[in-house]
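Practice set, problem 2.
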Amino acid sequence: MQEGEAVPAAVAGLPLAHALTRGETVASSAEDTPVPRGSRRRRLWELPSQALCPVIGVCLPMPVLRRKLGKLLGGQALSNDYEMHCGAINECARRGPVSEMLQKELDQRFAIALRQSSQHKTAEALTRWWNAAQQGNDVGGALWGALTHARCDAALQEQILRDIHMLQHQVGAANRADLQRLDELQDEHAVLTRELAQAQSRSTRLLAERARELEASQAECLRLRGELMARDTLAAGLRDELQQLEDSIPGLRHRHEQARHLQSQQDRIHQLERALLTARQQAEREQRRADDLQQALAVAERQLDQQRRSTQESPDAATSTLPSLDERSVLCVGGRPAVVPIYRQLIERTGGRFLHHDGGEEDAVSKLDASLAAADLVICQTGCISHDAYWRVKDHCKRHNKRCLYLESPSASGLRRALGSLGSEDHAEAAAQQSAPQG
């Protein structure tokens, strides 16, 4: 059936048929002001005429309305959307098959919203619920639940219709923005489609080039395999020929083994000769070092003999200026082994007991603490001891208030000068004690 043609006889008896083909409207017989009905909800045909248009337009999508009316009429509704909308409004103005069918459809579609709205027992509570619900996603359910509620008075009904009216304007503006955005997306889609086609073309070209390169590589691989097989075949033939030649010459393998053994022996001889030359050079260096040490030792012995002779010739003159140590223990830290006996002789001549520690060269540094504890006077050879021994001596003498004489050069004359200064300091202390007032 085309638009404007007559309705079939099967649906000619329904008042909706004329509205679906002509788009006419009839005046509503319902009252505009809702009448209190206890707790019963209003039906679709009980709503005012100005509420039917937003209810049908917002709560029922056009495909659903067309399907329901077509099923009720026993055929397919061929009117346009506007005529279909106007016809449904005319039929819902009174109770009938169409209004009852749409009432049932709306109750089923918005059952959750109906249960939510039924929890509000006053017009004020229903108004607050409507204000919150219209901001959500189910505006159709909120509209149906609020308009059909038993506590929907004239003021709330007017507010709901005004809100729905403005909402429809907003939806229209949003649809226009969406259409504009759709046009932009279509243009962008066209650009992306062209770019995709270009990318696919490049990809196809690259795949073709890669396929050609792969074919060339496979061909090169086949060629190299052929060359390898030919070389392996030639090597196998040469090995067979070599084996035949070895079999034809008896003792050839043994000769080869002897030649290899001889070569290894020659390499070993060369290695030993180089090691022997290195050892001889090292021995010569050690011999020269030993000769130098012997000469230095001879010089030191001659110097020691001279010092001993000079000491033996004038022992009284050497020791007359030295103070008496009065059996005090004197620890000498460091010093060369050649001058240690001279130190011992000088200390013992002045009445002291001689103790010695080499400062960490051979004796353990840990033994130095015990020697320091047993000493009354410490002589430190700063140039002949380790840093650890030096700091141990200095720290011990400072903590225990022990006198310590520091000698830079290890010599008997240096020790005599140090002991002489010790005697002058003792005389100064004695004079200070005698001049002190008696208590």
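Problem 2, part (b): a different protein.
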Amino acid sequence: MARTIPIFHPVVALVVFLGLSVMPTRSAPRSALVGSLPGFNGTFPSEHYSGYVTVDEVAGRNLFYYFVVSERKPSKDPVVLWLNGGPGCSSFDGFVYEHGPFNFHKPKKARQLPTLSLNKYSWSKVSSILYLDSPAGVGFSYSKNKSDYTTSDIKTASDTHKFLLNWFKLYPEYLSNPFFIAGESYAGIYVPTLAREVVKGIRKGIKPTLNFKGYLVGNGVTDYKFDGNALVPFAHGMALISDQLFEEVRRECRGVYYWTDNTTESCSTKLVEVDQVLNVLNIYDILEPCYHSPGSSSANSDKNQLPTSFQKLGGNTGRPLSVRKRMFGRAWPLRAQVKPGRVPLWPELSKNGLEVPCFDDEVATVWLNNKNVRRALHVAKESLVGPWELCTGKISYYSDAGSMISIHKNLTIQGYRALIYSGDHDMCVPYTGSQAWTRSLRYKVTDKWRPWASNSQVAGYLQGYDHNLTFLTIKGSGHTVPEYKPRESLDFYSRFLAGTRI
């Protein structure tokens, strides 16, 4: 409830009458305030809030959020919604591992709580950031009607728009702040579809009116043709496949490097050869070792040593990656087979005996399933939300939004700013696809391909286009860019939000 000042003194009454503010009012729900967190000893650099927003009263569909107020100028700084992908992955992935206010330090003994320290590269240094578990069934979000766990791109965008409208009613003091939407991986679908809903709402006069300015997408799934064609050129350019194999694939597949109904047997054979060569690599960062790779000693280790969510997946069957149409936690798929239809999730993949992901989620899993942590976060009772998982198989998800390219074009032509960024060593959603589709818009180049710097060093390359569209790479980074390059990420993020030259 908003705090108001009783008017008893005539001078105070005069000031209020003149429309002047005696002191700032606050409407943030005090019941949502996070006062402390297990594992952290110290004072928060800004206020934190967490809780639920109901998006469907009848069904009891509730989305969980964690809100970190800007450490700089909360009344002026942008508010940014952050979405992780999957589909089915919690945005605590971003909070714990990427750009949240804390660094999480793994304890020496398994299953102990991590210790937390302040993250000097947190995105809350320059903005307020709103982490959202979406759709219902993901992370701590839930519905009392289990049929809600069957969902899709369009329904997710609609629900998230309802969440935003209701959230800003709870936090109206941030309504005038510039608002941006950001996300990575399968959020390459979430972000533009949500942005489209927000813009529609603004045009229709839906209240409250969001001060939407633009969006950011990192290594995002966009279009199955562009993303599907990205892997083979990426692998060749990174010296992962030979010139000979590249020429053979190009000849037999005629430049179409993903499976279609018209794929010839000779093309399929060559694509399988490519997959067999790449299968031993960490798809999220080809420079990093794989936590559980068919090419590593850990692949033959005791399965019980793996994080709980990985134990569901089983081992590698040796099937070609593209045939598997994998979803590896933070993003699916390697070949971006995101055509209209059902997107496979973890339990289904485990039935098919597919290999496990190359990342370790133990720190987040232990911390977020601790009863004291959940109490501090105001999480609903476990009978409603169940155990927290980085990526869940609870939902049944359908891809029904199609290609994002026309949505990006419509949004940018209207003047909304867009930053499409890619870690250049990610093989899950390679930068080659994002670079190709941004070029396909045929916008005039306004900032010719050039390096951009962080800490006086080349941090990557970018190309700027008309209509406020920028494509940017981060040198040496994998799929989850802020996790690999935190300083560089804060630099491009803060410059983009400020509208200054990156």
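Answer key, part (b): Residues 32-224+402-498 form a domain with the Rossmann fold fold (CATH 3.40.50.1820). The chain has 18 helices and 16 strands.
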